[in-house]
């Protein structure tokens, strides 16, 4: 049962009686007063008596009055969990918190990429701002630790750039075994002054923190410049496009050692990687055949239709 914040001793007694935890609210009030009197007589002062704490508690059947008071003064409230998946925007994270009825308050949307996707412990009545601060502090610690162990030749100038690259990796693949290789594609392209050409950056440039475009990307979307469209800008976008998880951050800090410059979906939930545009075009042709339901996709030796030099 829940003891709301701001409830006085009599309020608590009434709630406990109504919920069947105790038989009479007045006994609860008298019990609390008695404990305070005992504390006062021991010379510890009335302020050192039982401090009743708001929160959600579990009581045993037929628990004694003293036991009920001890439970509420212990502060051992019921702990719940909330899981924030990798790849959500800060706006989407706030929406998840707003949808959770255990939490209170209406927070501002934090800076993109400043929250760590994780499972967090929460209590009934806890403020959403408090949970967001916990997420932000966890993110700062994780980013600092990963940044300190980054590869010496990774072309990133700051932890913020690490988060930005990791956010792109996070949105490009959900497969653990691919993250370092996807990160390598973007690192290799940065090293060659090639545009990243990442589709998720197009989407973020259009919808921002809302997250989903709700339709396929069009040729017009690709060619329309935005601050985040890496088909139109050089280097990294001005900031993250989501909140990346630990694995994506680690992959961006220590990418695989490959020469890959391209990748495209392979029809299995993963991606086909290529070092050259010619090989990439062949991979794209196979993917298009899969999309169109072709019985036999082009074999590796067969000619393929040209494709843009896109990361995905």
Automatic annotation (TrEMBL):
Entries under Gene3D superfamilies matching the protein: Classic Zinc Finger, Endolytic murein transglycosylase
Biological processes per GO annotation: cell wall organization; peptidoglycan biosynthetic process
MF-aspect GO terms: lytic endotransglycosylase activity
Site residues (Important for catalytic activity), renumbered to this chain: 172
Family as reported in the entry's similarity comment: Belongs to the transglycosylase MltG family.
HAMAP family: MltG
Function text: Functions as a peptidoglycan terminase that cleaves nascent peptidoglycan strands endolytically to terminate their elongation.
Official protein name in the record: Endolytic murein transglycosylase
């Amino acid at each position: 049962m829940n003891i709301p914040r701001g409830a006085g001793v009599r309020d608590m007694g009434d709630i406990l009686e109504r919920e069947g935890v105790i038989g009479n609210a007045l006994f609860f009030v008298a019990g609390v007063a008695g404990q305070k009197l005992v504390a006062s007589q021991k010379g510890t002062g009335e302020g050192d008596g039982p401090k009743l704490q708001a929160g959600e508690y579990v009581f045993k059947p037929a628990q004694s009055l003293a036991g009920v008071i001890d439970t509420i003064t212990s502060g051992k409230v019921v702990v719940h969990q909330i899981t924030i998946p990798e790849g959500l925007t800060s706006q989407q994270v706030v929406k998840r918190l707003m949808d959770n009825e255990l939490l209170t308050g209406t927070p501002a949307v934090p800076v993109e990429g400043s929250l760590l996707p994780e499972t967090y412990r929460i209590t009934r009545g806890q403020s959403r701002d408090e949970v967001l601060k916990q997420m932000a502090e966890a993110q700062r610690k994780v980013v600092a630790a990963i940044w300190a162990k980054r590869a010496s030749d990774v072309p990133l100038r700051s932890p913020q750039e690490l988060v930005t690259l990791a956010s792109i990796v996070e949105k490009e693949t959900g497969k653990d075994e691919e993250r370092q290789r996807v990160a390598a594609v973007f690192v290799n392209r940065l090293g060659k002054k090639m545009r990243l050409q990442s589709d998720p950056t197009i989407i973020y440039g259009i919808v921002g923190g809302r997250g989903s475009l709700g339709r396929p990307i069009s040729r017009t979307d690709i060619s329309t410049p935005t601050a985040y469209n890496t088909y139109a800008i050089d280097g990294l976008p001005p900031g993250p496009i989501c909140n990346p998880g630990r694995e994506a951050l680690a992959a961006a800090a220590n990418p695989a050692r490959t020469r890959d410059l391209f990748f495209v979906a392979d029809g299995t939930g993963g991606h086909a990687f290529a070092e050259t545009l010619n090989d990439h075009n062949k991979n794209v042709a196979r993917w298009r055949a899969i999309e169109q339901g072709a019985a036999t996709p082009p074999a590796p030796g067969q000619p393929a239709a040209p494709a843009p030099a896109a990361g995905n």
